[in-house]
Amino acid sequence: MAKREGQLKLGAFIYPAGHHIAAWRHPDAQADAGINFKHYVALAQAAEAAKFDLIFFADGVGTRGDNVEVLSRTAHSYVAQFEPLTLLSALSAVTDHIGLVGTASTSFNEPYHIARKFASLDHLSNGRAGWNLVTSASEFEARNFNRDSHFEHQERYERASEFAEVVTGLWDSFEDDAFPRDKESGRFFEPEKRHVLHHKGRFFQVQGPLNVARSPQGHPVIVQAGSSEAGKELAAKAGEVVFTAQQTLDEAKDFYADVKGRLAKYGRDRDDLKIMPGVFPVIGRTEAEAQAKFEELQALIHPTVGLSLISGATGGLDLSLYPLDGPIPDLPETNSSKSRQQLFIDLARRENLSIRQLYLRVAGARGHWQLVGTPEQIADQLEERFVEYGADGYNIMPPVFPTGLQDFIEGVIPELRRRGLFRSDYEGRTLRENLGLRRPANRHVQSAKAAE
Amino acid sequence: MAKREGQLKLGAFIYPAGHHIAAWRHPDAQADAGINFKHYVALAQAAEAAKFDLIFFADGVGTRGDNVEVLSRTAHSYVAQFEPLTLLSALSAVTDHIGLVGTASTSFNEPYHIARKFASLDHLSNGRAGWNLVTSASEFEARNFNRDSHFEHQERYERASEFAEVVTGLWDSFEDDAFPRDKESGRFFEPEKRHVLHHKGRFFQVQGPLNVARSPQGHPVIVQAGSSEAGKELAAKAGEVVFTAQQTLDEAKDFYADVKGRLAKYGRDRDDLKIMPGVFPVIGRTEAEAQAKFEELQALIHPTVGLSLISGATGGLDLSLYPLDGPIPDLPETNSSKSRQQLFIDLARRENLSIRQLYLRVAGARGHWQLVGTPEQIADQLEERFVEYGADGYNIMPPVFPTGLQDFIEGVIPELRRRGLFRSDYEGRTLRENLGLRRPANRHVQSAKAAE
Which InterPro entries match (chains A, B) (predicted)? Predict the structure, then answer.
């Protein structure tokens, strides 16, 4: 395969004080970040000045977890922060170019609301909206929505798939040129360019039409994050950006080839979907400085929070009763299959880790691709995975805001530019144009043409 | 009763091109207002410069009606416009003082989402959010949410009442001082200042807590608009601003006394709720100029739209088959009780109106209090209803934007100020402070004090 041409795409994944679980305790951090609008304005404008494709917000419709001793020591787990759609709408008024991607669950929402809000955001921002389509697997969210438990895996994805069909159908309610708004004749829209959906499915019955004009991007960009079999299939069917997490180059290449290979059966091209894994970069002028920065963050993890990260793998044993710097005690057998946490415990035994060392190991990785090093070292890694077809770009998850984002902007981005791997200015006007995604034709216009 | 002291409150009720049904066809109108963010920025900033308490957006979760010949000639009926929560969030970033009130239906929403989005908007705007709590009585909305018809009246209001209880309960999830965010000790919030709702009611089961910190106003201001018996009871229980419509001073005084009289049984004071009827002002330097302005708008009503306004009262007869400027033909009897439209038909017969004259009469009033005259005449009317305890303020519904709002700001507001009836600067920092509404204590803090 020839050396890959082109440039990679970048998202700035914003989480209030930072992505490290103890970020809010760091001296650089804004502890009240979750409800500090000025903080987000500064981050969004910095990311825009650096020509990031998009800013990205995760979401939870409820606090994740109910151990209040743990929760009260963390700004993570959606304890108390802005709701992303309102936040992104406000940010649309103080930015001009950067994409605005927010998460909304298909499990505890109605497709009409979601179609409408993202279409509205797309109009407000002149074509910069993106919807991160997720399913909710947390009982803590379910309990806020008239349920005792979340939908099981298969049902969740079937619901998500139908949800996406309804949303994209609603986005095509009006053709792009449906609105002459001709004051003279009194014709506001052309009746034949308005389409009623009449959706009746297993999960949803939605008549339509959407009461928002077709938006600048036609459809806001759909982001998707599932890595399960059902998740990859949904990405191939409906996703345009995939946010994912693979630790190694080989895993990344496999995932990339797998998902891209599923597109054809939905009539889609390989370029119709961009794979943008998360990257957690800790950047120093030297490798030692980067490592020291990382350890400074790790030292801020409160033991209660640290122990909670491995509590799922202890078979009910309360590790807080044992010395933190002592060995891991014998644990009861559990019936559950090997979780990621249990794999960590196996590792800990092999490496003879203390309890504290174990939770620090888990806290550090947290499933993301963690890069600790100099800008050149990090650029090497990003370049390799890009040119080897393991990624089309990355969602950058700085450990602490604002300094972690600044480090990336001042160190890594110039290095990527020197290598010709990242833009110096926006190519397009909309998020879709910058990502190199085609603007979808209205399905009703396509059918009319096919029938000619 | 002594002459009433104090000043009246003003809301700018914004509807895309204007409140007159043909507004979008007017030369002054922005025909694409519904998706033109700059248009709304200009209106919000003008209202703020004039010291309006709030801007107000109605909403429909679906287009009202399905007669496409009629819909295609109007920008009304929620055909195609921004969703209000996203729009208000964006406007929060370009305004500093004015209240931001948006409508959200209790019929086709979940209380957790609504509590969260308005709390988020309250944080984004530093205490300027208001929720206009409505029930949805349109089958066209119901059909977008898995239903064939809307909830019947009684059920709708019972659901709305429980919905409001859940929302306000969620807004008290955290006490105001729950977040020390102490980097040193690692304590982000005080566990005992977080309260789990555990709501289990007839319509909703919501565990909580809300994952947003208690907002600057404690609770965003709740606006309510029902004028039915159930609506007035809900206003007295949960409303803080009532948007209403009465044609005459006597009706207004009766409504005012009625609703204010219901507050005591909910342990509320008369000042805990502000009655702010809608006013549709057409303003000229002379009365003749004002009347000419009104007639210019009326002439823009397309006959198809005009006839649709009275179609409910014709017993199925298609009036478009008769000459517009001829008399009203004999109409078949209908079984339904006398609607407002039918009362208009009786009136038309007494006054010998043509079909066109009839629909113009209906279009003009549309249920709102219409004032056509000079700034002084309009100020006289507003003053009278205020000092006679028929209103605490008004929601101004200009016929056409932006000029109808400008006319009010340049003509009526200076006149109100000369009479000492309206502020020259904001008294407070939050919407609640400007409206003279108390900041609600957190219910958990109250209980703790009561228990002392």
Answer: Diverse_substr_monoxygenases, Luciferase-like_dom, Luciferase-like_sf, NTA_MOA
H or E element in which residue A377 lies: helix A375-387
B81, B207, B297, B308: best to mutate for the A interface, most A CBs within 10 A:
B207
**Residue A384 within a domain:** yes
Identify whether B2 is part of a domain.
no
Residues A278 and A292 in one domain: no
ipTM of this complex: 0.96
> Does residue B195 share a domain with residue B311?
no
Choose the mutation target among A207, A210, A304, A400 for the interface with B, i.e. most B CBs under 10 Å: A207
A144 and A39 in a single domain? The answer is: yes
Reported pTM: 0.96
Name the token pair of B392. Answer: 């605490």
Q: Could you tell me if A133 and A222 are in contact, meaning their C-beta atoms sit under 8 angstroms apart?
A: yes
Q: Which of A348, A365, A382 is the last residue of a domain?
A: A365
Q: Is A62 on the interface with B (CB under 8 A)?
A: yes
User: Which residues of chain A have a pLDDT value below 50?
Assistant: 336-337, 450-452
Judgement on whether residues B275 and B358 belong to the same structural domain of the protein: no
Tell me which residue of B235, B238, B211 sits closest to B119, measured CA to CA.
B211
How big is chain B by its Cα radius of gyration, in Å?
Answer: 23
Task: Look at residue B150 in the predicted model and tell me its pLDDT.
Answer: 84
Considering the domain architecture, whether residues A416 and A391 belong to the same structural domain is answered as yes
The per-residue pLDDT for range B211-262, each reduced to its tens digit, is: 999 999 999 999 998 788 999 999 999 999 999 988 899 999 999 999 999 9
Closest among A329, A346, A401 to A32, alpha carbons compared: A401
**What integer pLDDT is reported at residue B151 of this predicted model?**
86
Chain B: nearest CA to A313, how far in angstroms? 25
Residue A304 within a domain: yes
Interchain CB distance below 8 Å, B120 and A82: yes
Res A76: pLDDT:
86
Convert the pLDDT of each residue in B163-215 to its tens digit. 999 999 999 999 999 999 999 999 999 999 999 999 999 999 999 999 999 99
B365, B384, B408: which is the final residue of a domain?
B365
Alpha carbon distance A438, B239 (integer Å): 48
Instruction: Indicate the residue of A75, A82, A146 with minimum beta-carbon distance to B124.
Output: A82
Which B residues 74-133 touch A at CB under 8 Å? 74-75, 78-83, 85-94, 108-110, 112-113, 116-117, 119-121, 123-124
Please name the residues between 316 and 375 in chain A that touch chain B, using a CB distance below 8 Å: none
User: Which conformational region is residue B339 in: left (phi greater than 0), alpha (psi within -120 to 50 degrees), or beta?
Assistant: beta
- Structural domain count, chain B: 2
Is omega for the bond preceding A402 within 30 degrees of 0, making it cis?
Answer: yes
Report in angstroms the alpha-carbon separations of A325 from A131, A316, A354, A364, B43: 44, 20, 5, 17, 63
Q: The domain containing residue B303 runs over which residues? A: 287-365
* Domain annotation covers residue B4: no
